[in-house]
Amino acid sequence: MRSAALVAALAAAQAQAAITVKDDGGNTVTLQKPAQRVISLAPHVTEMLFAAGGGSHVVGVVSYSDFPEEAKKIPQIGSNREVDLERIMALKPDLIVVWRHGSSERQIDMVRKLGVPLFHSEPQKLEDIPESVARLGQLMGTEKTANPAADALRQQLVSLRSRYANRPPVRVFYQVWDKPLYTLNGKHIVSDALRLCGAENIFAKLPVTAPVVSVEGVLQENPEAIFATAEKNYGGVSMWKPYGTLLAVRNDNLFTIDGNLVNRSGPRMVQGAAALCEKIELARQHRSK
Question: Which keywords annotate this record (predicted)?
Answer without folding.
Answer: Signal
